[in-house]
Amino acid sequence: MEYKTDVAALKKKMIDKDIPTIVALSEASGINRNTLSAVFKGKVQPSAEVMRKLVAVLGIQPEEAGRIFFSHNLRIA
Question: Which superkingdom heads the taxonomic lineage of this protein's source (predicted)?
Answer without folding.
Answer: Bacteria
